[in-house]
Amino acid sequence: MKTKFTFTLLIICNIMLHAQSVFFNSNHLNTNNHQYLQNKEQVMDYRLINFIIEDYELGDWVSSDSVIYSYDDDLPYGHGNFDFIQFQNYSSEPLFYICEYFQYSAEWVPAVKYYNNFNSDDLRFAQNIDSWDGTDYAGDGRIEYTYNIDNSISTIITLDYSGGDYDSLYKQKYNYSADQLVNITSQYYTTEWENDAIEVYSYNSDGLVETTTYQYWTGSTWADTYRLISNYDEDGNLIEEINQDYAPGWETEGRYVYNYNASGFLNEVKTQLYDGLDYLDYQKFAFVEFENGMPATNTISYWDGFVWNLSLKATMEYEAYDDGTVAIDNPLFNKNFNVYPNPASDVMSIEFTSNSGSIVSLIITNNAGEIVNRQTFKAVQGNNQITKSISELPAGMYHLSLIQNGVKETHSFIIQ
């Protein structure tokens, strides 16, 4: 049994490698399951704070979804390792405090909110999922995490929320040998835990994952269903994953091809189908990066046999956080940033200049540091002016932060 929030969690909070969640005809080529595939890491001074998803329709980009990540600066949320391959996995998603997911029709509407809970060792032990019921967020589910003594992940348990109680749905158990992940067993719960599937890992002489074999439970034994064969370059970067179904006998269905830029960072994932003779293009997932190497946009295109057709685009925004200093030099953001009137009462005007026409976040916090209002939108290149209603906020001191391309500028203002 699976519920809507389980899929929402996998798809939305891990959208960075959305291209890898597209299935081949076998319905198996989905490396969202690829929990511990190792790859080159980029150590950064930034953390992801939001991204906007747009669909390509009749020649225009149309807003579809958006995700906002919130962090608590007094706690170690937002780690500094950004792994393009692993980002879609539970173990490597940004350790946000709150993740809010919105959908767009005529306006942005709340959909799902995720809360991470951390223990005294700064390890996430639970993630609560609330869904928007039209007027407020209501409990929907929960994911619980346990760890081994060395802090490696031990179990991930998915629970459904119904009738005021959390009910177990699904469990993944991580099994190791000599510090290497050997397999991940999955079980579903009815009146007791029952076997469902297993992922079995083998490694090459460099300690990198060579094959990942997926098996299902027949009722008496594990049976092969499909596998991924991983190939690497001389630097240990993943360059190819071949997908094979068990028919019986292993038959190649397709592959992923990973391409890197001159700096060694992943900038394209290409999905190809195998027709028995050749690999044929099917889908392409391309990164356009900032100068610092972080992905600015990720675009998905489909091959129709003649040309690549645009399909979906994610536009990312980051903030610096490692030393508590968020104002960094970035030529994409002109610091012509003004807020007036000050003091204000019902409405306030915000002016700024954008040199890039990128995604902008406006965040209002009270004097206690609590976020009381947040808005994300796409700026126009040049001068921007926004009129914002503040009539629902009580009188007092507030701080408005404008974030664009990793640069954060803040003005304080008073509501009277």
Helix count, DSSP H or I runs of 4 or more residues:
1
- Strand portion, in percent? over 45%
Distance between the termini: 53 Å
Spatial extent as radius of gyration: 23 Å
User: What helical percentage do the residues reach?
Assistant: under 10%
Report the strand count.
Answer: 27
Fold-level CATH name of the largest domain: Lipocalin
Question: Helix and strand string, N-terminal first?
Answer: HEEEEEEEEEEEEEEEEEEEEEEEEEEE
* Average pLDDT for all residues: 77
Descriptive notes:
With 416 residues, the protein is mainly beta. It folds into 2 domains: 4-320, Lipocalin; 333-415, Sandwich (Immunoglobulin-like). 2% of the residues lie in helices and 60% in strands. It has 1 helix and 27 strands. The protein has one helix at 4-12, and strands spanning 42-43, 46-57, 60-70, 81-82, 98-104, 108-118, 124-132, 137-147, 153-162, 165-177, 180-189, 193-203, 209-217, 222-232, 238-246, 250-260, 266-274, 279-289, 295-303, 308-320, 333-340, 347-354, 359-366, 371-378, 382-389, 396-404, 407-415. The strands form 4 sheets. It has an 18-stranded antiparallel beta barrel. The chain has a 4-stranded antiparallel beta sheet with strand order 24-23-26-27, with no helix packed on it. The chain has a 3-stranded antiparallel beta sheet with strand order 21-22-25, with no helix packed on it. It is globular, with a radius of gyration of 23 Å.
